[in-house]
Write a structure and sequence with these properties.
It contains five helices and two strands, in the order H-H-H-H-E-E-H. It is mainly α. Strands 1-2 form a two-stranded antiparallel ribbon. Strand 1 and strand 2 form a beta hairpin. The radius of gyration is 15 Å and the shape is globular. The protein starts with 10 loop residues before the first helix and ends with a helix.
Length: 156
């Protein structure tokens, strides 16, 4: 049996994320974490820009290298757990983009999702700050998982 993974490269998977995103409201209650729904939208927007030259982000250092965690994070049949720390440049309470207009911020995120899914050079072979080098296919898998993780944070 060939196993397929959900990814932004699959139009049905991308459409599912867009559908779920349209159900998010500014007052949607979180199931875990400290971000508001609006902060989460800005966090995801910043995270997608991190994969381009539009949002520089510092590389993580620590005992677990990207070689150890990359495969597990992208391909293990487990959901990402709550409480994974993020880089300060995409943390909305530190250096991330501050929420402004909810509808506009959601529209910008949705446009970035479409652009990433439809533009092969969107991620420009950038390094992920935790996982290191990612292929375009890996970035699209990461993008799906990251958005899915945070939509689940708000029960979507």
């Amino acid at each position: 049996m060939i196993r397929t993974f959900r990814t932004l490269a699959n139009p049905a998977d991308a459409a599912d994320l867009h559908r779920r995103l349209t159900r998010l409201r500014p007052d949607s209650p979180r199931q875990w974490g400290r971000m508001t729904a609006h902060q989460m939208v800005c966090h995801l927007r910043d995270a997608f820009l991190m994969g381009t030259d539009r949002k520089p982000v510092s590389e993580a250092t620590g005992p677990l290298s990207w070689k150890i965690v990359k495969w597990g994070a992208l391909y293990a049949p487990l959901r990402w757990p709550p409480g994974i720390p993020t880089r300060p440049e995409i943390d909305q309470t530190i250096g991330g983009t501050r929420p402004a207009d909810f509808e506009l911020d959601v529209a910008e995120l949705a446009a970035l999702l479409r652009e990433a899914a439809s533009t092969p050079e969107f991620f420009e072979s950038r390094r992920h700050p935790i996982f290191g080098p990612l292929s375009n296919a890996e970035w699209l898998r990461w993008g799906y998982l990251h958005v899915d993780h945070h939509l689940r944070q708000f029960a979507l």
